[in-house]
Amino acid sequence: MKKIHLPPLGALRAFHAVASCSSFKRAGEELNVSATAISHQIKLLESILACRVFERSARGVSLTETGEILYAGTQRAFAALEQAAAQIMHSQQPQSLTVTTTSNFLDPLVGAASGRFQGGIPGHRPAVTYQR
């Protein structure tokens, strides 16, 4: 079976954004690039696929039949990538910072420092050890 080469990820992201927004300008804003850059990516994608994925008109853009198929695929693919990234980020074990000192020095600072540490570094737990 012949291997099919996928279009560049940037072109697929641009396509997905335009399809979601129905606008090259809004897609560019979403991806923090110009509408011209989006247009270039769509032209590249259409060149690689050898077909049009959007119908362009004065009122905006709409998906062609081929574009509908591709959009369904990019929705599934990007949802799967987002789910995988979320799963990885949530599965990371919390890291800890251990501070060891005498109780006389640390007692006044523990409450405030612990709260700031947890608020500033999500997913990490402070651990305080007292020595006598």
From TrEMBL:
Family in the record: Belongs to the LysR transcriptional regulatory family.
Domain of life: Bacteria
Short name of any one Pfam family annotated for the protein: HTH_1
Protein source organism: Serratia fonticola
Domain spans labelled HTH lysR-type: 7-64
Protein name listed in UniProt: Gcv operon activator
PANTHER family named in the record: GLYCINE CLEAVAGE SYSTEM TRANSCRIPTIONAL ACTIVATOR, HTH-TYPE TRANSCRIPTIONAL REGULATOR
Molecular functions per Gene Ontology: DNA-binding transcription factor activity; sequence-specific DNA binding
GO BP annotations, alphabetical order: DNA-templated transcription
Keyword list, A-Z: DNA-binding, Repressor, Transcription, Transcription regulation
Keyword Transport: no
Entry keyword annotation includes Transcription: yes
